[in-house]
Design goal:
It comes from Amblyomma maculatum. This protein is of the alpha+beta class and 436 residues long. The chain has 3 domains: 26-57 and 88-140, no CATH class; 164-387, 3-Layer(aba) Sandwich (Collagenase (Catalytic Domain)); 403-435, no CATH class. The chain has helices at residues 82-85, 187-190, 196-214, 247-260, 319-329, 374-381, 385-393, 409-416, and strands spanning 19-23, 26-29, 32-33, 43-48, 51-57, 61-71, 74-81, 89-92, 97-104, 107-115, 118-122, 136-140, 176-185, 221-231, 244-246, 270-275, 278-283, 286-288, 293-295, 306-310, 423-425, 433-435. The strands form 4 sheets. Strands 1-2-12-11-10-9-8-5-4-3 form a 10-stranded antiparallel beta sheet, with helices on one face. Strand 17 and strand 18 (286-288) form a beta hairpin. The chain is globular.
């Protein structure tokens, strides 16, 4: 898998009342909502005079989110209210922004991506203004350093080739397809987050921005639905649980693991592992630490429906890698590649040169780097009716749901902090615990 690299530059905006420079890669701002929700559901979020987001409510989580954790050495499955989790999440398609907005007293707190290159979070050590506005910091998103691995064009193929899906002009496809995705956050990734709700919202924001990119698909329009997350200490798909991660052996073990526990995961269409480790692969007989992620080519509707990618937790550094690897699962190859003979009738991407700089090519410093090329979009569209028919008609369902497994946020918070008194769901954010 070639490395996704973005060389980011940051120019400090004018130091007006809402923008104060901190240092070369960040700035202090005071976001505020300009108006109440418009009739069409839009919100106007003023971050700086040069950056105003036009936000719409996002829908990215399943009604019940499966949460798999380890308690007293045993894996436990609970379910969270997906609608409560996503209740704070909004997006701006034009600016490719994906943010969470929560009320905090008379002000608001904003977290997430305000563009593909910048993220925002509250500056909790800074005092709020007399007007109640809460200080926030904008950071550049570091998607990786500059390495020669930009030419690393490795592609994972399933050990047993998936059945070829023939394409014919008579096949019909649905207008929209929802692809369920289950997420695993490894120990080096999940340990950053103070609670599972923060982690779950963070994953929602990354999937949400991937859906913005996927909104450019058509016939069918493809969207991801977040169905659950595993935060396990066991990590049976890892041979070595140190900081380095062999991506090629891990993804094979991950594929076998996902196949065997698919029922416990709720039969998702795809699975993605967020790792906080440093992934590496083999190139020309040497270890290549420039590798950012791997995904099985054409993995959707096969037994090898998994992908993985690096992410520095809390920074959204893995958002582009996620969108890239998921596209492999959905059928997109690297730009510039010829048709795969295993899939008769499936187009290649040879008419979209790798150096054009789209998301499936050399996206380094390219204005197209956050978009799929027409070749990639066509490959994802022309999957064959057999796959799309099953995926489009599948109804999300929680199997083997027993009394006590579905937790209200109030009950989840009290269980999470059993040793403490006066534990409730947050007054302002019902998907967040509050300990008084």
């Amino acid at each position: 898998m070639h490395r996704l690299i973005f060389l980011l530059t940051f120019s400090t905006l004018g130091a007006d009342a809402g923008v104060l420079p901190l240092h070369g890669s960040s700035e202090l701002v005071y976001p505020q909502l300009l108006e109440e929700r418009a009739a069409n559901g839009e919100l106007k979020l003023h971050i700086t005079d040069d950056l105003v987001l036009t936000l719409r409510k996002s829908s990215v989580a399943a009604p019940l989110l499966r949460l798999i954790t380890t308690e007293n050495g045993k894996e436990v499955t609970n379910f969270l209210d997906g609608k409560a989790i996503e209740s704070t999440i909004y997006h701006d398609v034009t600016k490719m922004a994906s943010v969470s907005i929560t009320q905090a007293g008379s002000g608001i707190e904003v977290e997430g991506l305000i563009s593909p290159e910048k993220r925002i979070e509250p500056a909790r050590e800074q005092a709020r203004l007399a007007t109640g506005l809460i200080p926030h910091v904008i950071y550049a998103i570091d998607s990786g350093g500059v390495h020669d691995s930009v030419i690393y064009n490795h592609k994972m193929s399933a050990p047993d080739p998936v059945t070829a899906r023939s394409i014919s002009g008579t096949e019909t496809v649905p207008k929209k397809v929802t692809v369920e995705i289950f997420v695993i956050s490894d120990t080096h990734h999940s340990q950053f987050f103070h609670n599972k709700t923060k982690l779950t919202v963070y994953v929602c924001l990354i999937i949400n921005v991937a859906n913005i990119r996927l909104s450019e698909t058509s016939d069918p329009t493809i969207q991801l639905l977040f169905t659950g997350i595993e935060v396990s200490k066991n990590e049976p798909y890892l041979n070595d649980k140190g900081y380095m991660l062999n991506a090629e052996t891990t993804i094979q073990a991950l594929g076998r693991y996902a196949f065997h526990v698919k029922q416990r995961l709720g039969y998702p269409d795809t699975l993605y592992l967020f790792t906080g480790r440093d992934a590496y692969g083999q190139r020309w007989g040497r270890s290549d630490r420039g590798l950012r992620g791997l995904g099985y080519d054409n993995g959707l509707c096969s037994d090898w429906f998994v992908a993985l990618g690096e992410d520095v937790p809390g920074t959204f550094s893995g958002a582009d890698t996620f969108a890239h690897e998921v596209a492999h699962l959905l059928g997109a190859s690297h730009d510039g590649q010829p048709p795969d003979p295993r899939y008769p009738g499936r187009p290649g991407a040879e008419h979209c040169p790798f150096h054009y700089g789209y998301l499936m090519g050399n996206a380094k410093r390219s204005r197209f780097g956050h978009h799929y090329s027409q070749c990639g979009l066509q490959q994802m569209r022309l999957r064959g009716s057999a796959c799309w028919r099953v995926t489009a008609t599948k109804t999300y369902n929680v199997t083997k749901k027993y009394p006590g497994m579905v937790l209200t946020m109030e009950a989840y918070c009290q269980r999470k902090f059993a040793a403490k008194k006066d534990v409730t769901a947050s007054e302002y954010f019902k998907a967040q615990c509050s300990v008084r």
